[in-house]
Design a protein that fits this description.
alpha/beta, 7 helices, elongated, 5-stranded parallel sheet, 248 residues
């Protein structure tokens, strides 16, 4: 193993079955491993492979400001890094996709002269594309975080496939893993999307529980999306197909 002080790793979508051989080798060589969103299957896998780990999911407190939670995770890990040992942060999905603690760790580590290595992993994007059998090919793919999309007034190219992630957390600053999005907040998102798509454009609400690569999806016209607010939570991603084909 190189002289990296912090490894940022992931167990993918399905805890332990998505862990790559490369990730497993790194985990087995780290002095300390810190895990978020663990479950019994992942815990058993880590124990079987004699990996010294600690579950820090307790830092994710319901109702607490998300930015504060992410800063606490980053600070916790940075404080445990040292020149004479290598630690690992094991998270869900791909560690570079919608994982703010990764960005915070990278910034803090650079200021402190600590070396960080990020290892890619299976993400929600992979599972949605596979589940819906979407080949992006020449049409392209755009991925947005719901709140940033609207607040920053990002422009959507409706000629390409589009994924809008974290729909259930739209316009919310607090950690909420169980509460559905309010119809008021969902209406704000729908109104913004109607700037780029006609009201009857069909889209899919994709729901995927952690630990399950099978994506449950519901098709609905954009104008009726608010009817599904009760079923939209932090695992929900919106897939919007292209409005028109790109000419070759």
């Amino acid at each position: 193993m190189s002289q990296d002080h912090i490894y940022i790793l992931s167990y993918g979508i399905d805890p332990y079955r998505d862990i790559s051989l490369r990730t497993l080798e790194i985990l087995q060589q780290c002095s300390e491993v810190y895990v978020v969103r663990s479950n019994l299957h992942l815990a058993s896998f880590l124990q079987t492979n004699k990996i010294n780990y600690k579950d820090i999911t307790y830092i994710y407190l319901e109702g607490k400001r998300r930015i504060e939670v992410y800063e606490n995770i980053a600070q916790f890990l940075i404080q445990r890094a040292a020149p004479n040992k290598t630690i690992a942060y094991l998270t869900y999905g791909d560690p570079m996709l919608f994982e703010l603690p990764t960005q915070l760790i990278l910034v803090a580590a650079k200021e402190l002269g600590l070396s960080v290595k990020v290892i890619p992993a299976l993400s929600f994007i992979d599972t949605i594309l596979a589940s819906l059998q979407i080949s992006i090919g020449t049409e392209g793919l755009a991925v947005y975080e719901a709140t940033s999309l609207v607040k920053k007034e990002m422009k959507i190219d409706n000629r390409v496939h589009c994924l809008v992630a974290q729909v259930g957390a739209f316009n919310s600053i607090e950690v909420s893993r169980s509460v559905s999005i309010s119809s008021t907040n969902l209406s704000l998102l729908v109104d913004y999307l109607r700037c780029f798509y006609p009201p009857h454009h069909l889209l899919r609400l994709c729901h995927g529980d952690e630990g399950d690569q099978e994506i449950a999806s519901v098709e609905t016209p954009l104008c009726l999306m608010t009817m599904f607010s009760e079923g939209i939570n932090y695992t929900t991603t919106l897939y919007i197909p292209p409005l028109r084909k790109i000419n070759n």
